[in-house]
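Dear U.,

For the methods section draft, I wanted the exact inputs and outputs in one place so we can describe them consistently. I've listed the two proteins in the order they'll appear in the manuscript figures. Please don't edit the token lines directly; just add comments below if something needs changing.

First protein:
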Amino acid sequence: MGYEDTGEGRPASGGTLVLVHGHPFDRTMWAPQLRTFGERLRVVVPDLRGYGETTVVPGTTPLETFARDIAALLDHLGVRRATLCGLSMGGQIVMEFHRLFPGRVAGLVLADTFAQGETPEGHAERNARADTLLREGMAGYAHSVLDSMITPANVRELPEVAGHVLRMMLRTSPEGAAAALRGRAERPDYTPTLPRIAVPALVVVGRDDAFTPVADARYLHERIPGAGLAVIEGAGHLPNLERPAEFDRALAGLLATVAARETAEDVTNS
């Protein structure tokens, strides 16, 4: 499993933040957040199974497998509790992690994602796309969705960001991406778990997200007790790359809330 850990080799304070990338990307999609937060707290950034430097396992990779992989990595690193931040598919993996291991979650950030289960149409579409990736590779898909992953305006105005997004997609293994698509086609409805989230939570979405619109973010926000909502202007599906300063400001607010709560609990238990 490929990963970065800013706590390796030095003491880390202020808790642990785990950043979970989306499809079809890798851990480098969190480069701005690693720069912002890596010096102030422990940040763990994994490549998911089938992506980046992590082993490719063809077939079907359910969200539960991704979540258990992250739990195993945290066990390996000696991390008991963490704030988890996931974007798109990563957000669904974070919801699955919370379903499986609620006691290990100190805070949740759900970015540009949605909770509802797959529809019959979506099930067929994801499996058909997996077949296409295995047959044709990543290039055609990557070029066709670039201006949906980030806004068309940002493709033009932020060429370095657009280039980074395109490179991540092009270097992703078709077998790994297809396995994830087949797993997501089988995903459950996380709506019933949302009212049970009892830790600080933040929902983030790009104002112009073509895949998970603001309505999906409001759906999450309305069902998670006490959750915050940040709508990032001038961003699409990847606001952490398109508008990193605004994304990081919202994330920093959530992390401050988590830290204050953890401190209060420590005082109460001491």
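Second protein (the one for the lower panel):
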Amino acid sequence: MADISLSTPDAAAHRHPSRAAALGSRWLGVGLAAGISVVTLMLAFAGQLTLYISPESVWFACAAAVVTIAGAVWSCTLPLGAESDHDHDHDHGEASGGRRAVAVGATAVGGVIATAVVAGAVLLPPASLSVSLALSRDTGGAGLFAGADVATLGAASDTSSFGVGEWSTVFATATRPELYDGAAVTLTGFLTPGADDSAQLTRLVITHCVIDAQPASVPVDIADWQSDYAVGDWVEIAGTVRVASDGSLSIEPADVAPIEEPGDPYEH
């Protein structure tokens, strides 16, 4: 005798999700991924992707975005609901229904959050990390940043290409600071207060993306600086490195020029 399986309406609905559910599933998958990919390419073409990742990572992000968009276009050739054909839950009963309800609720919450993130990326203008964030990440200790191999060698070398990050490492680790006395510098950054409210020139340094951004600072001898400048003002400083009697290094500025925030506000 043939085995005849009866299909209940609930089981049929589970095997064949509604159009709304299928659209929601596709949006939470390729839809959000394609949205982020489009934003990534737009930022890259506008030269603003470096506000979020290092320049060395731009090519990889763009390549991944192109592949993702191609995959999203291909997925549109599949009928709605096809992606769930091989993802059925064959466990029936109250326990299965409870798990399904929790899964649906978690998916809905996650979908709302993810959609808000994508909408924010599309609608909000790109912006650099704030000065307050830089101050909050300042631990008071000197950071060590890539590129300042001179700090390891303990001897002066060509410092003409050094930025705030490299000089902050030199100032913190130089074993023969007198070798840097008189070195000419031209640096760009924003002003922040030091431990004794003296002026510091600060720049955020990122290795891969803004998540790992860390502040680098060098002391600048500007008397009563807060009467002429506000914390966070961007300036270009041309001056000379000076060594104090206690061996500490600072910059003696010959010129301090207020500037607008650069297009790429980070050092890498």
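Candidate sentences for the figure legend, describing the second protein: The chain has two domains: 9-123, 132-267. The first helix runs from residue 9 to 15.

Thanks,
Y.
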